[in-house]
Amino acid sequence: KRPAGAPDRSLARKVTKVGVVGAGLMASQMALLFLRRLHVPVVLTDIDQARVDKGVGYVHAEVDKLAGKGRISPDEANRLKALVSGSLDKAAFADADFVIEAVFEDLAVKQQVFAEVEEHVSAEAILATNTSSLSITDMASKLKHPERVVGFHFFNPVAVMPLLEIVRAEQTDDATLATAFAVGKQLKKSSVLVKDAPAFVVNRLLTRFMGEVIKSVDEGTSFEVADKATEPLGLPMSPMILLQLVGSAVALHVSETMHGAFPDRFSVSENMKKFVAAGKTAVWQWDSTGAQT
Ligand code: CAA
């Protein structure tokens, strides 16, 4: 059955090569998923060689782990590893028909990335973004072919979380949207069409929820108590562990976007700002009053 709002699947174009801009946490997990499910060449780019190498290294290591667990044969592992490559140059995206970006959550940076990618791909190549909160319509607005832009929002861990938010920008055409749904299906995700509104649906809920937990810490509840207080809700992960998984810098960006859009409903935690500014990655580096240690 076609997902609600998805255009006729006969409009979908075949994807034969994938480009991934960024080789960080989400990008490298996405590269692995595309590789495993589409079996097509996947090229990762980033701003320096160390980042590119780390991204490709992650994909190779995960493929080896799958082979080690007997999920894929050693031959298959070698085939998959040969299909992934890294480059500093977006010219490596030539012939890619689906390019997804997962760079820093900043509109101007993402617009610049898409403008650069557009120089190297065909007019029909899809430009997808994994942004968790920014406007897809704004991201598309400066391009020669804005109709090929679509939101394609995964959740961490990408290999495990079934949901995919597909976001239609004002400019997105039916062929782009149909291709996005077809790729979502190939990736074995449950795709849903969501409105191009700040933080779409999932992060809108999650940011409000996490924001209230952190606010209680800002107000003086101990870190451990605030975290433990969510136990009766039966979540798969406590909020502070989830914060660590998502990354506090990403969470802060999303809460700032949401505060900008709905100042009466979303706040930005001062402790969280200090925490991110200090480059802390482990939530338990906060002391029990919420101050950084
Ligand atoms: N990366 C890859 N695979 C992972 C993983 C990771 N970080 N963590 C777990 N897995 C895999 C395991 O390898 C295992 O796979 P197999 O069964 O194939 O071996 C499977 O997941 C289950 O692992 P566990 O037995 O350790 O499972 P668990 O019961 O502890 O569940 C979890 C782990 C699925 C991550 C679960 O804790 C969970 O659902 N947590 C909530 C995650 C969540 O809410 N994510 C959304 C964050 S918001 C976001 O990402 C959006 C944004 O834009 C900010």
TrEMBL record:
Species, as recorded: Lentzea jiangxiensis
Domain 3-hydroxyacyl-CoA dehydrogenase NAD binding as annotated: residue spans: 17-196
Family: In the central section; belongs to the 3-hydroxyacyl-CoA dehydrogenase family.
Full-protein positions shown: 317 to 609 of 702
Chain ranges of the 3-hydroxyacyl-CoA dehydrogenase C-terminal domain: 200-280
Protein name per the record: 3-hydroxyacyl-CoA dehydrogenase
